[in-house]
Design brief:
mainly alpha
């Protein structure tokens, strides 16, 4: 293999590695967005559950206290 062929081959390989790396970075960004969205929605569900539990507890406690 001549020096010129070696450089050409090396350049092609580096270009291919760069393309693959760019694709991986893009996929990771998409994945991070999905994870962030999942975390936010999970927190909203937890907040909703606590709100419902608190409302239910108050709906039982307030009438019991006021009727005494």
């Amino acid at each position: 293999m001549t020096e010129q062929e070696f450089q050409t081959t090396t350049t092609r390989r580096l270009d291919k590695i760069e393309e693959t790396l760019e694709k991986l970075v893009n996929e990771q960004e998409k994945f991070n967005i999905r994870i962030e969205t999942y975390q936010k929605s999970s927190q909203q569900v937890v907040n909703l559950a606590f709100g419902l539990i608190l409302t239910s507890a108050l709906a039982i406690i307030i009438p019991a206290v006021l009727n005494r």
